[in-house]
Amino acid sequence: MEYVERSYRSRFSSEGRRWFRVSFLESDLWIGVDDGSYSPSMEHDIYARLVDLRRSMDAYLALDPAYRTALVPYDAATAAPQIMKDMSAVCHRTGIGPMSAVAGAVAKYIADGIDSSEVIVENGGDIYARAREDMDISVFAGSSPLSEKVGLHIPAAAFPLGVCTSSGTVGPSLSLGRADAVMIVCRDVLLADSYATAMANRIRTADDLEPVIGQIQNKSDILGALAVKDDRMAVCGQFELRIFA
User: Fold this and answer.
1) CA-CA distance, 161 to 12, in Å (whole number)?
2) How far is CA 174 from the centre of its chain?
3) Helices 189-200, 82-94: crossing angle, 10 deg rounding
C-alpha cells in the first residue's frame, strides 16, 4: 500500500540535492538539502532536534489532553511550547482544532534549524519548502484514477511556502469528510495544513468539489488549491495545473 510505504518519496528528485529520512514516533520526515551543505552529522543533529521537539509536545499533551482532541479552535496554555501556541493561532483562522496543523508545524520547526540554502521537509504528505528551482508537486489521492496524475506547478520565485494535503480516504489522520485529497498552498505551512483538513472535512461527494473550491477562492491567505474526489477534481489559485503521464 503506497501511503504506508511512502513510495511516493521516490518521485522527489533533483540534481544537487541530498535526500535522507529522519523519524521518531509518528513523525517520519523526508528531508532534502543543498548537496553542498550536507554532512553525515546533519542527520544526527536533526534527529536530536526532532526527539526534543516531540518530547516537549507530548509532555504538554499529557498535561492538557483536551488540546489533542479539540475539533474547534483551542488555545494552548501560557506555559506551552511555542509550537503548540503557533498551532492554536492558525486554527482560529481555519475554525478547527489545533492538531490539524501538527504535521506542518513539525516540518517547519525542523526546517528552521537546518543550515542550508535549500531545504524541503516532507512529513506524511505535508511539505515545507525553501527551494531554488521550480517544482511540480503531484497529489496522492489513494484509489482515485487522478492520483499522482494531477498536481500544481510551483515556480521558484514563490518559495518559501507550505504545500499540504488532507484526505478522508487515505492515511490515519482524522477527517470528517470523504475527499480523496485536498491540496492547499499557503505561505504559512501550519495554515496550509489546517486549511487542508478543514476543506477536506467539507467534501463527501464529488458534487461538493465546486462549492468548496468556491469557499477557498474567498480566502486571501490560500495561494492555490486542488481537490479530488473519485474521478473529478477542482482547482483554483495562482499556480498552473499540471497533468502527469
Assistant:
1) 17
2) 14
3) 50
